[in-house]
Amino acid sequence: MVPRRMASELAASLRSFPAVAVIGPRQSGKTTLVRSLFPRFTYLSLERPDIRAQAEEDPNRFLTANRGDLILDEVQRVPQLFSYLQVLIDETIPRRSFVLTGSENFLLSQSISQSLSGRVRIFRLLPFSYGELAVLPTRPEDLDSLLFTGMYPPIYDRSAEPSVWYQSYTETYLERDVRNIKNIASLSLFQRFLTLCAGRIGQLVNLSALAIEAGISHNTAREWLSVLEASYIIHTLKPYHVNYGKRVVKQPKLYFVDTGLVCSLLGIQSADQLRSHYLRGSLFENFVISEYAKHRLNGGVVPRGFFWRDSHGHEIDLLIEEPAPFAVEIKSGETVTAEYFKGLQYWLSLTGASPERSYVIYGGAENQDRKYGRVVAYRNIDEWLAQL
Question: What is the CATH number of the domain that holds 29?
Answer without folding.
Answer: 3.40.50.300
